[in-house]
Amino acid sequence: MTSFAGAPVAERQNYDAVLLASFGGPEGQDDVIPFLRNVTRGRGIPDERLEAVSHHYRANGGVSPINAQNRALKAALEAELAARGIALPVLWGNRNWAPYIPQTLQQAYDAGHRRLLMVTTSAYSCYSSCRQYREDIGMALTETGLDGKLAVDKVRQYFDHPGFVEPFIEGTGQSLAKVRTQLADAGTADAPIHVLFATHSIPLRDAEAAGRSEGEPREFAEGSAYVAQHLAVAEAIMARVDPQQDWSLVYQSRSGAPHVPWLEPDINDALAELAAQGIKGVVVVPVGFVSDHMEVLWDLDTEARETCAELGLAFDRAPTPSTHQKFVSGLAELICERATNNRADAAVGPDRPAMTGLGPWYDVCRPGCCANFRGDKPVIAEVGSSIGLVAAPPAGPAPVQGGS
To answer: Does 162-317 carry CATH code 3.40.50.1400?
Structure first.
């Protein structure tokens, strides 16, 4: 494992709760349009257009699996922290559906919590995966009047932490074996296979701004930290699974105006090109995703699978980390890097493991990192930001350690 020596390390703190922050999703047919209004707020998109793009939710009973998955992850993380003797409740707040982040912060403050450590369900660096969460917290603290009363810090982006990468190594190997079995059963055991690492497409402008900030000394592959991080993680996975196996990075779930350029190639276009080249089987690895939420179940398990069936390609999709024990343990280690709550775990912190040369990523982002082209907003966890800062607590009893 290698690491980037220039990454600033934040001072460890005594936290009194962990905040699990995520995207959120509808939990019934009546929730779908209100949820999509939340996601697209400020863009002036009419309900008729939202209804036209709601089909993947409608086909699943109006329910996104992400909330259930976050409940499971919250419970698993609580159990892992308890097993390590770390008395930190895990709170949960979403950007776009209940439980909403502002309400969660208010409830945390009302329960006596004063310093939270945020873990998000997004591993990579770009506006929507990191800065937008930091802005949501900054705006929530301002809107609730909790700025200066409740501090919220954030763990580093963990794209190359072993806890995130190793479940993909395990799953990719298993999926390769399944596709090879499918081809053998079809009498084409020696047919070529390709591994596609899939992640969410984002606008090119956001991709180019990803990881860019004042004082950033590095250049990134393809001019983007977002792209470079995915390529580095995919390379680390294949180095362990099969260094000779061909693979590539593809994108999915594009949305927005057609004239705005986004990262390509789209996974379905890539599948068609691979079939034309004589590839007979594909393994799809959703390397950009923490859990099997709607964009995995629909864009990969439905649309990409159907494309493979039409093209005559053997197909298997590797699992996401979800509640894999290594992933849950990795999140606990990220918390231990920042928390002084259990000194028995202090040895975990200084190591800051990373499986690529791009990490470990910054604990505190540099000014302007992953720029917001839609306007400046209050932001936490950025060098020079005063949002969320609170005065040091006076000597006395330890902060409240109540349940979530």
So the answer is: yes
